[in-house]
From TrEMBL:
<protein>
    <recommendedName>
        <fullName>N-acetyltransferase domain-containing protein</fullName>
    </recommendedName>
</protein>
<feature type="region of interest" description="Disordered">
    <location>
        <begin position="98"/>
        <end position="129"/>
    </location>
</feature>
Length: 141
């Protein structure tokens, strides 16, 4: 698996993963920093070798915080993808924040990545969310 910047050609795969219209996903790719996890090398002409998107993460910056605005993928992809906003925040001396629906598995992944619960977040699509943060000082460790 490798991580790369999302391309407009990834919009269909991301739209399918998020159950959103392709146009909305294209806008996300243009408006935010979006990274994708891909498998396969695409060097052969067979479909089995075509790179497949296995996850993505979108983030942007407001103030002195990197906000993870969306992500999806299998556990391994999510773990690797969350390194991207952390790396950006560390380089810029910023904190990182993610608000996610209450989900024990996702919470455990974020906590393993160094995030700490910081209280409840806003309701999203009728579901309660939890706010996770990494202070900029913690990123230097």
């Amino acid at each position: 698996m490798r991580i790369r910047d999302a391309l407009e050609s990834d919009a269909e795969a991301l739209a399918t993963a998020t159950d959103r219209p392709r146009g909305v996903v294209k806008n996300m790719i243009h408006d935010r920093s979006v990274r994708v996890a891909v498998t396969g090398d695409g060097e052969d002409s067979g479909d089995d070798d075509k790179p497949a998107v296995t996850g993505f993460i979108a983030f942007d910056v407001r103030g002195k915080t990197v906000h993870v605005t969306d992500f999806d993928g299998d556990e391994q992809a999510i773990r690797r993808l969350f390194e991207e906003p952390r790396r950006f925040a560390r380089r810029e001396g910023m904190s990182v924040e993610a608000v996610v629906p209450n989900d024990e598995q996702t919470g455990a992944i974020l906590e393993d990545a160094g995030f700490e619960q910081s209280g409840t977040g806003p309701r999203f699509e009728g579901r309660q969310t939890t706010r996770y943060v990494i202070d900029s000082a913690e990123l230097d460790r």
